[in-house]
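Forum > Structural Biology > Help requests

Title: Can anyone predict the 3D structure of histidine kinase?

Hi all, first post here. I have the sequence for histidine kinase but no way to get a structure on my laptop. I'd be grateful if someone could post the C-alpha cells.
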Amino acid sequence: MSPTPPARRLRLGLPKRVFSQVLLMQVAIAAGVAVLATGLFLAPLSDQLDNEAMHRALAIAQTTAEQPQIAEDIQNTAPTVDGPVQTEAERIRKATNAEYIVVLDWRWVRWSHTDTKQIGRTVSTDPSQALAGQQVMEIDSGTLGRSARGKVPLRDADGRIIGAVSVGIAYDSVRARLLSAIPGLLAYAGGALAVGALAAWLVSRRVQRQTRDLAFSDISGLLAEREAMLHGIREGVVALDRTGRIRLLNDEAHRLLGIDAQAVGRPPDEALGSGRTADILAGRVTGTDLLTVRGQRVLVANRMPTDDGGAVATLRDRTELEQLGRELDSTLGLIDALRAQDHEHANRMHTLLGLLELEMFDDAVEFVGEVVGDHRTTAEQVTEKIQDPLLAALLVGKATVAAERGVALWVSDRTRLPDRLVDPRGLVTIVGNLVDNALDAVAGTPHARVEVELRAEGRTAVLRVRDTGPGIPTENHELIFTDGWSTKEPPAHRRRGIGLSMVRRLAERQGGSATVGAADGGGAEFTVVLPEALAEPEPALTATADTSAEEESR
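Reply #1:
Sure, ran it for you. C-alpha cells for histidine kinase below:
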C-alpha cells in the first residue's frame, strides 16, 4: 500500500483561508454568546425568584406583626405550646403556606415555631437588626434548613419594640422553579446558536470580499502599531522589552516622570538616572504598590512581567493624598501639644496668682522668668539640632506632652538634621508614632526617659528612639510591626496596633527599614533608616561651605 501523497495529507490546526478562520471563530463566538446569555438570564432569574420569595416572607411577617393581639399576648402570657401566640402564628402560617412563622421577644426567646420543642428556647440566628427596628430580607439557614426569610420588629400599642417576627419560605421551592425553567432556556439557546452560525457564515463571506484575503498576521501588525488608546489613560504606563529598555511611554508617564520621548529605547537608569524609581522599573525592587518619589511627586508603582520577557509598569500620582495624610498626622500631634501646653499654662497661672495674692512679688517675677527661660531653652536646643521647622515644632510639642506625663524627652547631642528633607511630613509621621509609642511604654515608670536621635548620613536619614521602659521580648521584635498587634487595651474611640505597622510601611515604601532592639541600660530602641530622604545640597550652598572650610583651614 503506497503512502498518502503529501498534497492530500490531513492538516491539523486552523485552516489557512481567512474565510474559514472567520467562520470558525464566529461560530465559536455565537456558541459562547449563547452560553453566556443563558447564564446571564439564569442569574437574574434566580435573583428574581429569591427576591420574590423574600418579599413574600417580609409581607407575611409585616401582616403578622400588625396583629395587636400578638403583641398583647407576648406581654401578658408565657411562651407555651398551646399558647395564643403559637395558635395565631400557626393559623397564619397554614393560611399563607409559609414554612414557618417565629414570634420572639426582646430576649430572643421563641413564642411560636413549627417544631413545638423550640418554643421557649432562644433563636439560632441573630435578630438584632429586627429588634433594632429594621426590616430584614435574606436567604439563610436555620433549624428548618435553607429558606427565604423576612424579619420585622414587633411593637406594642405605644410603638415600643417588644420583639420580632421572622417568616421563612422554603428555599428548595424557589430552586425547583428555577430548575424547571432550564429546559426551555436551553431550547432558546440552541435556536440562538443556529441563528448565530448562519450569521457567522454571512459575515465570513463579507469579510472575505472586503479584506481581499488579507492574512490575519498583517491585520494584527497594523493593529499593534495603533496604540494611541494608551495616551488617554489617566495612569502612567511604561512598557519595557526583554532587554530592559523602555519600549513605550504614554502621555501620563511622560508627565509623572518628567522625561520626554527620547527616553524610549534607553534603559531606566539612563533615562531617569540612578534612584529608586529606576530600580522599580528595572525590577530590582519588587512588590506591590511601591512608593517612590520623583521630583515633587509621590508615585505608587506596580510592575508586571509579560510573556515575551519584558514588563509593564503602571504609575499613579499619590502626591495630594500623601500630603493630606501627613498634614493630618502633624495636626493631631500639634493638637496634643496645645492641649498639654494649655493644661500646663493653667497650672502656672494658678501658681502665679497665688504668689501675687500672697504679695510675694519677687518670687512671682522669678517664677515667670524661670518658665519663660525653660521654654526658650527647650525650643532653642531643638531648632539648633533640627533645622526642618515642621519636625522641630513636632518635637517641641512632644516635649511638652512628655513633661505633662512625667517623662523626660531628650534630643540626643548627636542629632544633626539639615533642612533638606524630601518628604518632611512623612518623617513627621514616623517620628510622631515612635515618640508616642515610647511615651506610652515609659509612662508611670520611675525615671522615665525618651531619647530621640536624628542625623544625616549623606542623603540618608537615620532615626533612633530609645526609652527606659520594660523593653520588648526578642520573639516579638517582628510581631510588633504587624497591623493590629498591640500589648495595650484598645480605647473606645480608635484602634491600637497600627502605629508601628504604619512606620514600617512608610519606611519600606521609601526603600528603607524599621527595626527594634534592646537599648543600653534596658528599654527598647527603634531604628529607622530612610535612603534618599534628603535632597542634594544646592551648588551655591556647597561652594560657600567649601570656601568657608578653606578659610578656616588657613
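The chain has a mean pLDDT of 77. The domain at 231-317 is CATH 3.30.450.20 (Beta-Lactamase).
Shout if anything looks off.
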